[in-house]
């Protein structure tokens, strides 16, 4: 496995570190598409929690939003990987980055397993509420972890 | 005049407390960003429906009315937190060009609301009754997407501004030599 020190010199790092706008543009993509991903996931969560769209099922909302969620997550992760490669050592040593990366991994796995299964089936209200609440907490954790990476670097 | 106002705001005891706090500042910022992510996503959904690009099997009224209150709640929290962040370091924001671009586009958000609420957002049933989505609805959706994306990007770029020896240049927030807006002291 490549160490952060070996990753420190790479073409993406050169692009992001040696151009004035490279890092900023990558971060803007990271944030805007993260908003798209979380916003679409949140629509399903609001339905699971019984707080919005009472006339529509969570399965229907999931069917309507999954493409946007996937595009949002894909661009977010790709832009995030580019940001990571701009300074792997700093991120590797950051406990908040490790927290964020772990929360993100858990949130994505949760989204495409438990969340997907419950949202696309007719589970009981109690199960839906618990699954929706956990989803919201996981994504809030990802945002918080990501912010603290920058603030406490 | 404006700078003096900013300095007065920053000197208030609550703003001083936030600025000099350990975890409170990042917690306020986390709440601000979380609301942006959620609120922004809900705006994107509404705009895509108005443009006719997504959720076509769901009526415009369902989408606009279904998300209205959540967008309002998100906006109130986001604005409150954003104002607290700004107030705690107002004097540092004053020379930041990205802050002023963001503020200008927030004014455009207000103008957008004044123009399009009466003719689009307050009467989504009329849009559904039309055989094709009216141009005014598509214009409202497109402008909303552009304005909010610009607000979001410039909000992030505020943290990149490094006045010392850099003019309008930018540098990564965590690599700046001087304490900057959005950075924990």
Please tell me about this protein's structure.
In chain A, helix 6 (95-119) packs antiparallel against helix 7. Chain A is elongated, with a radius of gyration of 17 Å. Chain A has helices at residues 4-7, 11-18, 22-48, 58-86, 88-93, 95-119, 125-151. Chain A is mostly helical and 153 residues long. Chain A has one domain (4-151). By secondary structure, chain B is mostly helical. Chain B has one domain. In chain B, 72% of the residues lie in helices and 0% in strands. Chain B has eight helices and no strands. In chain B, helix 2 (13-20) crosses helix 4 (60-88), helix 3 (24-51) packs antiparallel against helix 8 and helix 6 packs antiparallel against helix 8 (135-157). Residues 177-185 of chain B have low confidence and may be disordered. The A-B interface holds A 20-21, 23-24, 27-28, 31-32, 34-43, 46, 51-53, 55-56, 64-65, 68, 90, 139-140, 143-144, 147-148, 150-153 and B 26, 29-30, 33-34, 36-45, 48, 54-55, 57-58, 62, 66-67, 70, 149, 152-153, 156-157, 159-160, 169-170, 172-174, 182-184.
Amount of beta strand of chain A: under 5%
The gyration radius over C-alpha positions of chain B equals: 19 Å
Largest sheet of chain A: none
Compute the separation of the termini of chain A in Å: 24 Å
By helix and strand content of chain A, what is the structural category? mainly alpha
Query: Biggest sheet of chain B: strands, sense, closure?
Result: none
Strand percent estimate of chain B: under 5%
Query: Tally the helices of chain A: what do you get?
Result: 7
> What is the number of strand segments of chain B?
0
Run of helices and strands of chain A: HHHHHHH
Say what oligomer this is.
Answer: heterodimer
User: Which class of secondary structure composition applies to the elements of chain B?
Assistant: mainly alpha
List low-confidence stretches of chain A. none
Q: In terms of per-residue confidence, which ranges of chain B show pLDDT below 50 for 5 or more consecutive residues?
A: 177-185
Q: Overall 3D geometry of chain A? A: elongated
**Roughly how much helix do the residues of chain B carry, as a percent range?**
over 70%
Shape of chain B: elongated
SSE run of chain B: HHHHHHHH
Which pair has the most extensive contact?
A: A-B, 38 and 39 residues
Rg over CA atoms of chain A = 17 Å
